[in-house]
Amino acid sequence: MKSDRKILVVDDQTGVRSLLRIILQDAGYEVIAVGNGLDALRKVEELNPPLVLMDVRMPGLDGFQAMERMLKINHDIKVVLMTAYSDEALIQRALEQGAIDYLTKPFDVYELRKRIDTLWETVIEESRWNKSPEREGNLRVCNS
């Protein structure tokens, strides 16, 4: 497991957190799991995970509120919201407010892994490459 493949899982249901931990660890990710939005904010400040999987409906700070605060802490963090409701308005709101994707529960284990792997490769790795000093150096060389 590579420590740079860190994912924060936020869900108030212990069973969902446990299932996601198993699935994602088996796929080679380091998983940090918490049960509420406030703990998620603390982990974002402490560990700066590149990707967050977060439930929309949680007691206290819900997924939308927590995502808004996370993006203020680190505007580069990528958030995937999870919901048991396949409501188009809710999904649209999630994407408009900064989520890069959404997952509806219950989710298919294989589809979940495939989507997270694809997001990691296309969004996280691309974002890291765009910020890397190697890329900037290559661009300067190409433009000189």
UniProtKB/TrEMBL annotation:
Alphabetized InterPro entries for the sequence: Bact_response_regulator, CheY-like_superfamily, Sig_transdc_resp-reg_receiver
Organism encoding this protein: Heliobacterium mobile (Heliobacillus mobilis)
Described purpose of this protein according to its UniProt entry: May play the central regulatory role in sporulation. It may be an element of the effector pathway responsible for the activation of sporulation genes in response to nutritional stress. Spo0A may act in concert with spo0H (a sigma factor) to control the expression of some genes that are critical to the sporulation process.
Q: Could you tell me which CDD domains the record lists for this protein?
A: REC (cd00156)
**GO process annotations (BP):** phosphorelay signal transduction system
Q: Which residues form the Response regulatory domain?
A: 6-120
The name under which this protein is listed is Stage 0 sporulation protein A homolog
What the entry lists under SUPFAM superfamilies is as follows:
CheY-like
List residues, modification 4-aspartylphosphate: D55
Q: Which PROSITE patterns match?
A: RESPONSE_REGULATORY
Tell me if Phosphoprotein is a UniProt keyword of this record.
Answer: yes
Keywords, A to Z, come to: Phosphoprotein
What Gene3D superfamilies does UniProt report for this protein, alphabetically?
Answer: 3.40.50.2300
